[in-house]
Design goal:
It is a single chain. The strands form three sheets. The protein has a seven-stranded mixed β-sheet, sandwiched between helices. Strands 2-10-11-14-13 form a five-stranded mixed β-sheet. The two termini are 37 Å apart. The chain is globular, with a radius of gyration of 28 Å. The chain is α/β, with parallel strands linked by helices. α5 packs parallel to α13, α14 crosses α15 and α17 packs across α18. β13 and β14 form a beta hairpin. Bound molecules: pyridoxal-5'-phosphate. The site of pyridoxal-5'-phosphate has 15 residues, from α6 and β7.
Length: 463
């Protein structure tokens, strides 16, 4: 054998045919070869500096390359079991879709559909028409249109109604919805001029009234979805704002945020405005998200007067903000479920999760305990009662009772166990609290329970 260890390095082809690489998985050959070359280059460098080191054989190198392929070329977007107890988790994609919505997306994705075609006449039609029909039927509004999300809805509504004009908003409602969505900044982008009235805790009708001038374009109410102003506080009821708008012939815009199409008080959650009520009171335009309490895909829904909806649809930005066929299909299927409220509660995952009783969660929790207890690496597992949140910036001060598994490992700290769960397959997202990993069952689909057990078993095991 040569004294030069570099001579003993296996060739690329030998590695390609060795170990797990010999199975020829579905990794593109070019990617595999590139990784082998990288691995060999690193090895050459090491051997140059440390000629005494042992030279690995082809199967060993193939194994190394395979491990890298599996981790580097697997999808970056992966399914996650949501064990956080936060039903609308923005980082986890907010609302999971109902089965019929998933089916609609699949069908639309697979083939062609009458996206902008009237099948009766054979003529071109608007992609908004089908959704408009469902939204007017469900909310009682005259007309409706949909865009990419509620932020886009706000921009396009203000452009259509208030460009270069003032929009009057209470100082108590200048919301920031996470990161870059701040009402004052959105208004600036839209070209409307923000006219703040009142104070953080008190705004009276007279404050609005005094602010109205010929430069006023609209009055806007924004639901304080993700915070509450409590104590000595007063805001003007929507009905009074609408009355004011009527007297001054000004449109009143109501950003209700979550878009509740059912009454959430049935889940013990108070204070969420419903779209229907806002329409009934006579708001000119009502805006809300598709993927919050509505339980559908990401969308910004605008319902209200035909005259304003037509103006919005003529805005050139409509083209930039419009929904694609997949989202429209999912949204239509979700909206159709609401034609029967009982069916909506049964089939829309977010509503179903909010409606789960403690008893149901406890039964599942006890079954899980039995399965988890024997796992090697487990130090302790307990079923405990806890509180869950709606999330997605909805109902921030209200909690729901829930059941959680509190898990401790023998070898791993809670932080390590939680990281192992996140990076496993499927990924599991829980919380760490007081030295334990906390897994909330409310947001775990019952059919994911066996997967959760497997993931936990793998994560608990010693390396
Ligand atoms: C969530 C929210 C928005 C933003 O909606 P997206 O659909 O996330 O763009 C706007 N206004 C209110 C009141 C909200 O709660």
């Amino acid at each position: 054998m040569s004294n030069n260890p570099l001579r003993r390095l296996p060739a690329v082809n030998q590695i390609l045919d060795a170990g797990p690489l010999a199975q020829k998985g579905d990794h593109p050959r070019d990617q595999v070869v590139a990784l082998i070359r990288e691995e060999l280059a690193t090895l050459r460098e090491t051997l140059r500096q440390h000629p005494e080191r042992e030279v690995p054989d082809a199967p060993t190198l193939a194994q190394r390359v395979w491990v890298r392929l599996e981790s580097e070329l697997r999808p970056r977007l992966r399914p996650v079991i949501n064990a956080t107890g936060i039903v609308l988790h923005t980082n986890l994609g907010r609302a999971p879709l109902a089965g019929s919505a998933v089916e609609a997306v699949t069908q639309a994705a697979h083939g062609y559909l009458n996206l902008e075609l009237d099948l009766e006449t054979g003529k071109r039609s608007s992609r908004q028409s089908p959704i408009r029909a469902w939204l007017t039927r469900l909310t009682g509004a005259e007309s409706a249109t949909v865009v990419n999300n509620n932020a886009a809805a706000t921009v396009i509504v203000l452009r259509a109604l208030c460009q270069g004009k003032e929009v009057v908003v209470s100082r108590g409602q200048l919301v920031e919805i996470g990161g870059s969505f701040r009402i004052p900044e959105i208004m600036a982008v839209s070209g409307a001029i923000l006219r703040e009235v009142g104070t953080t805790n008190i705004t009276r009708l007279s404050d609005y009234e005094k602010a109205l001038t010929p430069a006023t374009g609209a009055v806007m109410q924004i639901h304080t979805s993700n915070y509450r102003i409590a104590g000595f506080t007063r805001m003007v009821p929507l009905a009074d704002l609408i009355h004011l708008g009527r007297r001054h012939q000004l449109p009143v815009i109501d950003d209700v945020g979550s878009g509740a199409l059912v009454d959430f008080e049935q889940f013990g959650l108070k204070g969420e405005p419903t779209v229907k009520e806002s329409v009934r009171l006579g708001a000119d335009l009502v805006l809300f998200s598709g993927d919050k309490l509505l339980g559908g895909p990401q969308a910004g829904i605008i319902v209200g007067r035909t005259k304003w909806i037509q103006k919005i649809e003529k805005d050139p930005l409509m083209r930039a903000f419009r929904l694609d066929k997949l989202t429209l299909s999912a949204l239509e299927a979700t909206l159709r479920l609401y034609l029967d409220e009982e069916r909506a509660l049964r089939t829309i995952p977010t509503l179903r999760m909010l409606g789960l009783t403690l008893g149901e969660l406890r039964v599942r929790g006890e079954a899980l305990l039995e399965r988890i207890r024997p796992f090697p690496g487990l130090k302790e597992v307990r079923l405990a009662s806890d509180v869950a949140y709606v999330g997605g910036g909805s109902l921030p001060d209200q909690t729901m009772p829930t059941m959680v598994l509190e898990v401790n490992a023998t070898t791993w700290s809670a932080g390590e166990l939680s990281q192992r769960l996140r990076t496993g397959t499927p990924a599991v997202m829980g919380r760490v609290r007081a030295g334990a990993v906390v897994l909330d069952l409310r947001t775990v689909f019952p059919d994911q329970d066996p997967l959760l057990v497997q993931a936990l078993q793998a994560a608990l095991a010693a390396a």
